[in-house]
């Protein structure tokens, strides 16, 4: 009886918390494009490496210098990203003396297609104080000459995609993710804080590096939740949920509220900047991670269209495209 998916939702508070580090739960987490995308992206280093690749870094040694990342770790991540066809190795033409130059790791179309998520990270940091060392460059919109300020908008109607104007559907509610969770809990705590501090508080990129944080945020965008509801809806262990809620609280992204005998978690306004980031990642997941199948969780915009979001410049109202952007490094 327990664990049958036909059962009505269990009453919160009546079910004991699952054991810490309990073996695989009987039901997998719901299949979503966000989760499928995060299976590739949610590693504390991966987004940072991709960010560097976006900014033009190509050589192993240059990645290593820019990120201060251990060689072995970098080597594993680059190999994984090549395996996912997000980077490819290429050999520059031999130099005049005939010596072969070191291989380069170049981004593929799949990586460039993640551009909106990269802008979301930059814009989030831009809008939040204490970012000088995190953002050593400005992004200029060449079309109008302004520093990039942009809103994530629906390409069908042009209206902004806010958490209040987007509804997430489950087109295949019975579909659950059967693939094992990527390395979780074991080492996430240490690396989470390590990455945030080593890279000068890359809060947004570090959050993307943690799958449960993203899934919890995405769920809370759909409405406040009790922790037990979160564990059930995402099929995550209770200790993981508690730990991530504490982190999100420490980052001032969620607040807790006592309702009767229960704690309910709400998003704080500061979290809204993460919504386009998660939408952009889910959108990318629709295109690259569903084996050509329709997305299991289409997002519907207030206008009724399936949301296909893009950034739109606040100054000139043009859709932001990579060839119209210029990085200007400080100093
Ligand atoms: Zn729309
Ligand atoms: Zn512009």
Automatic annotation (TrEMBL):
SUPFAM superfamilies: Winged helix' DNA-binding domain. Transmembrane segments: none annotated. The keyword Transcription regulation applies. It comes from the Bacteria. One of its GO terms (biological process) is regulation of DNA-templated transcription. Pfam families: HxlR. Residues 1-30 are annotated as: Disordered. Residues 15-29 have a biased composition (Pro residues). GO terms for molecular function: DNA binding. Keywords: DNA-binding, Transcription, Transcription regulation. Residues 29-133 form the HTH hxlR-type domain. The keyword Cytoplasm does not apply. This is HTH hxlR-type domain-containing protein. It comes from Pararhodobacter aggregans. The lineage of its organism: Bacteria, Pseudomonadati, Pseudomonadota, Alphaproteobacteria, Rhodobacterales.
């Amino acid at each position: 009886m327990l664990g049958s998916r036909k059962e009505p939702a269990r009453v919160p508070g009546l079910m004991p918390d699952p054991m810490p580090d309990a073996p695989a739960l009987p039901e997998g987490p719901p299949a979503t494009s966000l989760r499928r995308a995060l299976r590739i992206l949610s590693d504390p280093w991966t987004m940072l490496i991709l960010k560097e690749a976006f900014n033009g870094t190509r050589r192993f040694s240059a990645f290593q210098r820019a990120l201060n990342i251990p060689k072995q770790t970098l080597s594993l991540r680059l190999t994984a990203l090549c395996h996912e066809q997000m980077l490819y190795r290429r050999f520059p033409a031999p130099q005049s003396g005939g010596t072969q130059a070191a291989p380069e790791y170049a981004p593929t179309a799949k990586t460039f297609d993640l551009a909106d998520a990269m802008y979301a990270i930059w814009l989030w940091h831009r809008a939040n104080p204490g970012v000088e060392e995190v953002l050593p460059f400005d992004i200029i919109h060449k079309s109008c000459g302004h520093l990039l300020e942009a809103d994530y908008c629906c390409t069908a109607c042009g209206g902004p995609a806010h958490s209040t104007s987007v509804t997430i559907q489950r087109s295949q509610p019975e579909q659950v993710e059967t693939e094992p969770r990527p390395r979780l809990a074991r080492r996430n705590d240490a690396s989470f804080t390590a990455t945030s501090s080593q890279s000068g508080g890359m809060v947004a990129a570090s959050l993307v590096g943690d799958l449960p944080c993203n899934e919890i945020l995405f769920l809370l965008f759909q409405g406040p939740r009790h922790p037990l509801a979160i564990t059930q809806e995402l099929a995550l262990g209770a200790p993981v949920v508690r730990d991530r809620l504490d982190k999100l609280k420490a980052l001032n992204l969620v607040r807790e509220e006592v309702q009767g005998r229960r704690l309910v978690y709400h998003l704080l306004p500061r979290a809204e900047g993460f919504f386009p980031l998660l939408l952009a990642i889910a959108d990318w997941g629709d295109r690259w991670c569903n084996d050509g199948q329709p997305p299991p969780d289409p997002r519907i915009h207030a206008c009724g269209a399936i949301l296909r979001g893009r950034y739109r410049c606040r100054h000139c109202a043009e859709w932001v495209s990579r060839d119209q952007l210029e990085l200007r490094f400080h100093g």
